[in-house]
Amino acid sequence: MQTESFAYLDEGSKRAIRRRLLKAIAIPGHQIPFPSREMPLPYGWGTGGLQVTAAILGSDDVLKVIDQGADDTTNALSIGQFFARTAGVRRSTRTTEASIIQTRHRIPETSLREGQIMVYQVPMPEPLFKLEPRQTETLRLHAWGDYSLIYLALFDQIARRGRTSIAYDYPVLVHGRYLMSPSPIPAFDLPKLHQSPALHLFGAGREQRLYAVPPYTRVEPVQFSDRPFLPQTRKQPCALCGSTSSYKDEIILDDAGTRQFLCSDTDYCSERRQG
Amino acid sequence: MSYVASKGGAAAIDQAHRLVAHALQRQEQETASIESALRQQSRAVDRIMAEAALYAPYLAAKALLQAQGDIPEAVFLLRAHRVTLPQLATALPVARSQNRPLRRISAVFKDLPGGQRLGATYDYSHRLFGYFADQEAPKAGDALGETSSPAHTSPADFLLREGLLEESSCNDEPDVLPDLTREPLQFPAGRALRLQSLARADEGFLLGLAYSTQRGYGHNHPFLGELRQGLTPIYLQLPELEAPIVIGEIHLTECQSLHQSAATNSCLTRGYGLQLGDNERKAISMALVDRALRAAELSESIDAPAQDQEFVLNHGDNVAAMGFVEHLKIPHHVDFQSELQILREGRQREGGTDCAD
Asked: Exposed/middle/buried for B3, CB within 10 Å: 0-12, 13-18, 19+?
C-alpha cells in the first residue's frame, strides 16, 4: 500500500482547496474553479466531496458518510473506509454526533446545528446545463444574473402540465443572487437548506468546481409568485418506525410487486425506534 | 528503412513484418500464452469479441496477443476471420428469463426480488496499487463465480405493470430482422439495425457520446433500471426435431436504462444495451446512446451529436475508423503533387506572398 498524507492528499493540494472554499463561502452559490485531483475513487463516485472532506478534515473531527440517506450503502461504506484508512478519523452514523457529514443525494432528517459542515457530492454543478451546455455561455448568464432560461423552462412545464416537473436537483436562488444546483437531492429536502445553521460545501471533482452556502443564508427554489414551489411530501408511513414526515425508499418485496416503504435516512429511523 | 523506396518495396515490407514477428517472439503461437491471456486479460478478450461481433474467446485471446495488446487491431483480426465463416443457422432469440446472473444490480430500487448481487466488481474498491493483494480469501460458502436463479422480475417489468414505463419501444420492426453483417447500413436506420451497430461500435467512441448526453448535449437523465451479466443458453431449432436444442452458453452483459422524456411526462422511456462478455461500461454507454438516438421517435429536438444517427452509426465502427484515419500513412504523393501544382499556379497568378506574411 502506498504511503499517504493525512486524508490522502498532500498538504499543498488541501490548502489550494481550502483557499477556494473560503472564496466560495464569501460568494454564496457562486461556482469557483478548483484544481481537482485524480482521487483513487472514480469520477462520479464522489471525488468532489472526497476532496472537500480531505481538505477540511482534522484529527478531532467525527465523520459521517451517507449515500441515498443511508450509512450502510455500498458507496458510503467505501468512502467511510477510505477516510478511516487514510486519516484514522472517528466515524459515526449519528447525525447529531458528526462534525462533518459527507452526503450523496440527501440531507439528513435530523436538524443540523451551528458548527456542523455538510459536504455534498455534486455531479453537475451548473444549474443551467440542461438548457445551455456551454460554459462560455453560462458564465455570462451568471455574471449578468440572467436566469430567464430557467424561468422559461418552468413556464413551459406549467403551461404543458399545470405544474413543474423537476423532482430532484431543483435549482435554487442563493441569497437573491446566484442560481445554484443543490446537487441531486430530492425537492423534498430543499427547505432544509434555507437559513440552515450549518455550513454547506459542494464539490464537483470531474467538473472542477466548488461552491458553498454559508450558515443562515436565504436559499429559495426558483418559482413564480403565483405558482409557488410546493415541497414534496411523503405520507406513506415507514414500515419500521412509522414516520410520516421522512423521505422514503420504495422496496419491492416479491415478484408479485408487493411494496414496502422505509426511511431513506437510516440514522433517523433507528433513533426513532430506539426512542 | 526508407518509407517508399523507388525500388525494393517488397523487400522493405518483408523486413517490416520480420520486425513485428521479432517483437512478438512467436508467443501467439503458444497455447499456454493464449490460455493465460484468456484468464488474465479477460476484459480485453470480451471487448474484442463484442466489437468484432463474434463470440470466440480463444480466438479473441489469440488476436490480442498477435496485435500486441492493440484492441482495435485485434478486433480487426477477428472481424477478418469472421467473414470466412459460413452462416449455418439462426439461433432462437436469447431469453432473458434464462440468463443466470453472475452479477445483477438495480440503481433505482434499494432492494428488489432476487436482491442486489454485486458479484466480482471493483466498483467500490480504492484505486491503489496492491489494494486487492490485501484482501482476505473469500470465506468458505461464498458463491465463487456461481450464478443465481434467473427467474426474478426485472425492475422495468414492475414499472410497466404500473403503467409508469413505455411498452416495448421496438415498433418499427419487420418480421425478418435486418442483419448488419449481411446487408449494408442504410439510413434512416430502424432501432434493430441501430442496436446491432451500437453493439459492435468502439467502446471509447460510445463512452464519449454517452458522457456527452449526461453533460447536456442531448440531455435525458438516465437511471440504471437493471444491469446484469450472466450465462445464457443459445437454442437452435432444427427442422428434424420438435424441441429446440441447446448448442452452448454465452456470457452476456445487459443494461436497461430508464429516462425521463421531454415530450411525454406521463411515463418513463427506455434505452437498451447488450454486449458479448463482461462489458458493463460499453453496455451502459450503448443504452444511453440508444435512448439518445430515439429522439425523433419521441418528438424530441435533435441538436446534439449523440442524437444524430448518421453521425453516430457512421463513425462508431473502429475497424472502419482506424482504417481511414491510418490510411493517411500510405503513399499519397500523386494527389499531393497535383495539390502542389495548384498552389504554385495560384501564387504565380496572384503574385503570391509568403504564407508567413
From this structure: exposed
pLDDT in tens, B224-261: 999 999 999 999 999 899 999 999 999 999 999 999 88
Q: What is the pLDDT of residues B160-190, one digit of tens each?
A: 999 999 987 655 566 778 888 888 899 999 9
Among the partner-chain residues B130, B131, B152, the one whose CB lies closest to the CB of A255 is B152
Q: What share of chain B is helix, strand, coil (3-state, %, to 5)?
A: 40, 15, 45
Q: Where does residue A58 rank: exposed (0-12), middle (13-18), buried (19+ CB within 10 A)?
A: exposed
pLDDT tens-digit readout, B339-350: 999 999 988 888
Contact at CB, A133 and B161, closer than 8 angstroms:
no
Task: Clarify whether A257 is annotated catalytic.
Answer: no
Q: How far apart are the CA of A221 and the nearest CA of chain B, in angstroms?
A: 20
- The answer to whether residue A241 is catalytic is yes
Q: Which of A46, A80, A241, A242 is catalytic?
A: A241
Interface of B with A (CB under 8 A): 109-113, 118, 123-131, 134, 151-153, 155, 158, 161-162, 214-217, 219, 265
Nearest to B33 by CA among B68, B7, B9, B3: B68
Q: At residue A69, does pLDDT exceed 60?
A: yes
A46 is catalytic: no
Q: Which of A29-33, A37-41, A64-68, B259-263 has the least mean pLDDT?
A: B259-263
Active-site annotation holds for A29: yes
Contacts of B223 (CB under 8 A, 6+ apart): B107, B108, B257, B258, B259
Per-residue burial over A9-45, b = 16 or more CB atoms within 10 Å of its CB, e = otherwise: beeebbebbeebbeebbebbbbbbebebbebbbbeeb
ipTM (interface predicted TM): 0.87
Give how far B349 is from chain A: nearest CA, Å.
43
Contact A40 B126 (CB under 8 A): yes
The closest alpha carbon to B225, from B277, B270, B266, belongs to B270
